[in-house]
Predict the 3D structure of the following.
Amino acid sequence: MFVWLTLLFLFSFSHVSFAQEEFISEIINLKNGAQIPNSVFKKYSSVEIARSIVERLRRQGHAPGQIEDQSNFELRMYRSDRRLGHILEYGFRNVHQTYTTSGTDYAEYPQSYMESRLRAEKGLMDLTFSSKLKESEKEVLDELLPKSAFVVPHSSSRPPLMIESSRYGEVVAVFKDHIKERMTWTMGDSLNLSWEGQLKTHTAADSVNAIEVKRPGYIEAQIWGDLGADDVKEWWIPKGASSETLDQLKKMGRPVYEYSPVEKTISFEGVTKTVEATREKGVLLFQPSAEEIAVFEAKQTQRRQKQKAGGVCSIFFNQLKSLLHIRVDTAPGYHGH
């Protein structure tokens, strides 16, 4: 019996952890609005699926031409210092994983907010997915769905009316360039654009620097797939941030810089006001040693392996339950981080 259970476990693991170097044909060849096969969420990781979704958009004409020099804009995400421990342990997570958001309508209308969010995300990828996925497949889907960030063009090409918001926190994560291959972006809040019927998806192949900002606002990035603390290039914290915040970031294996808000006076529809438009990187506060980086990277590898093992164990446990006719009742509840 033990041998058979071991083989069943290894069989499940081989299907979940299958490495895919090229794009996933089951996604690339889908027609607009088609449903992603359930099997994709069993065979591939969220990052592999994400890369294929964004590549499909590029090929479908959302982003014609070659990918531009991606060094001319940054991806930044604002987070509260209270979330840093969770980011280190679990990575950056979306509302489908945490059941929390700073969205203004979520607290009062959670069900309708989540339905609207899913509708917008399906619109962004121009694909859909089944609402009847197995638990382990649903975990991959939730991890796949996007995490929002800011697209920040370099100052020389920054649109005059473009601003950033620190409503999500004052700690800034600046992501590595390789993340851009699995990002989409919209000119403004994707959820609001979906409500207004104005949703238009772009990828890094569209020139961020050629856009025209017609009203005060921002460029929203949607980062698809697993996003960990090791995907961060550097962290920025405001001048005067607490020593506790800096100590937490020292565990992240990345440089930490001080920043200052950059104020800008903007005029729109006859109204002139001063806003915090962006952040300017300043003094280097911490530079991790090679040994500290290696320890951090090893822990992040363990985090991903643990997540994979969790998905594998979920598959294995569900198969075992079906074989032994075990019924397990679980109550819904808050399990976000």
In short: The longest strand covers residues 271-286. Residues 2-324 form one domain.
